[in-house]
Amino acid sequence: MPQKSRSSTIELRGIQSRSDLRGLHVEQQQQDDKDGQAAHFPEELVERILARVSYPSLYKARLLCRSWCAKFCKSPSELLHFSAPFQEEVAAAAVRWPKYGPVSVLGRELMGYDGSSNCWRKLALHGRLPVDLCSPAFDSWRLAFAGSLMCAFGRSQDGSLKLLVANVLTGDWKELPCPPEIRGHPILDFRFVKVDSQHYKVLVHNLPSSQFQAHVYDSNRSCGTWTSFSNSAAPAAGIPGLSPFSAYADAYIGGNFYCMSESSMGGLVIWKFTSATGVWEEVIHSVEFEGGEFPGGMFEFGSNFLVVTLLQSNSIPPAGDKQISLSARVYELNLQSLKLTRISKSPQELVIGMQTASLVADAESVYFCDIPDHGLASFCRFSVKDRTWSTLPSSPPEYKWKWGRFSTFEPGLSPFASP
Predict the structure, then answer these.
(1) Do 171 and 126 contact (CB within 8 A), yes or no?
(2) Residue 175 near residue 162 (C-beta atoms within 8 A)
(3) H or E segment at 30?
(4) Of 197, 247, 262, 317, whose CB count within 10 A is highest?
(5) CATH 2.60.40.1270 corresponds to the domain 98-413
(6) One Pfam family this chain carries (predicted)?
(7) Is 236 in contact with 285 (CB distance < 8 Å)?
(8) In the chain, where are the structural domains located?
(9) Does residue 8 sit in helix, strand or coil?
(10) How far apart are CA 408 and CA 368, in angstroms?
């Protein structure tokens, strides 16, 4: 160090004018730039490091510059370039991202419960999503998630019916054609089914109805049309309307439609509609259920098919509310043998609000969402793996939940899936 100071002093003594000083400054700046460039990391290494950052923090890198924004988008024609290796790195690390369930959307905010940190989080939707999804009218739309993709079904500001599928991480979206038979008619129900990381199906149906009709949109079909099926004959006698307590008392598995309804003789019946033949058949009758149970939900967990029912409970809610509360029963249905086995029931201290319960599921749990007309929302969970029940912490009181607008969000399943 002393030797460097003496050398600098000798150099400064040789400066005769301000122009010499400016020249020295330029020379020193050039040397500093070279030293800085030598210390810079290669872009490939930076991509590898950032790819291991978890969602949602990772997506702040979009704000660095246009080229970094382009790395997160599946539309290279609109931006600078497309970085497939970076997206592959992110997708490989994304299996460790947090999962959010339950979730709901208001405007450009998604509120969800992060089970890994045991807290509620607000997540921003991508700014490129269409304005229809952020208008007050969107609050009445039905929505569901499949990985990073969100399907929204409702009416736009001009009153027209719309069906949108969007990747809420990349901002890519597209409007699907509406099933022709339901144009101009109210929507009764729909399902958004994830088949794999880049493939999804949308099911729209009109059950209950005197003439059952269902329409399936398959993202693998290049023509972008719907496949429709309905009763080949008069509907099976005695299929009443589904329970209003849950919008998930039906399921679409392997091309067949299952629904659960209350029997006219009391108890429950599970029906199966085979799309190839257009015929309903009774799968399970009420003898396997307890008296007083009514439909809750039907959910697929890999090779397991669970049936959730609700039952009026004698428990008193902790807040002392006078409204009637519910308990839950969980059954496993073997679709080959059609054997129904009860595997769990909710503990007495865990209560669900009557007439406000909404059920959703992810790959690990079933969530019970209670949104009363008055008072705070409450949420509980049944873990399928260890068959345990738990109550989630209270959600932020300022968030205005909407009944029936719940889903689950697993962004790490398909972070760059195309709508």
Answers:
(1) yes
(2) yes
(3) helix 18-39
(4) 247
(5) no
(6) F-box
(7) no
(8) 17-70+78-86, 98-413
(9) helix
(10) 12
Convert the pLDDT of each residue in 34-89 to its tens digit: 544 545 778 788 888 888 999 988 888 887 888 888 788 754 444 344 456 888 88
Q: Which residues pair with 217 in a beta bridge?
A: 202, 226
| pTM, two decimal places | 0.81
227 DSSP β-pair partners: 216
C-alpha pair distances (Å), 348 with each of 213, 316, 379: 40, 9, 15
Which residue type does 330 have? V
Q: What gap in Å lies between CA 251 and CA 258, rounded to an integer?
A: 5
Query: What is the DSSP code string of 230-259?
Result: E-SSSPPTT--PPPTT-TBSEEEETTEEEE
Helix (H) or strand (E) holding 418: none
Task: Name the nearest CA neighbour of 390 among 349, 359, 343.
Answer: 349
Q: Residue 221: left (phi > 0), alpha (psi -120 to 50), or beta? A: beta
Query: Alpha helices, DSSP H only, in 361-406?
Result: none
Cα 149 to Cα 129: distance, rounded to the nearest angstrom: 12
19-36 burial string, b = 16+ CB within 10 Å, else e?
eeeeeeeeeeeeeeeeee
Nearest C-alpha neighbor of 415 from the set 16, 73, 42: 73
Q: The sheet that has 119-124: what strands, in order across it?
A: 119-124, 109-114, 100-106, 407-409
255's tokens:
């091309």
Measured distance CA(53)–CA(90) in Å, rounded: 8
CA distance 77 to 177: 24
| Residue 387 Ramachandran class (φ > 0 left, ψ -120 to 50 alpha, else beta) | left
Express each pLDDT in 87-133 by its tens digit.
888 989 999 999 999 999 988 889 999 988 999 999 988 888 887 77
Q: With 0-12 CB in 10 A as exposed, 13-18 as middle and 19+ as buried, what is 292?
A: exposed
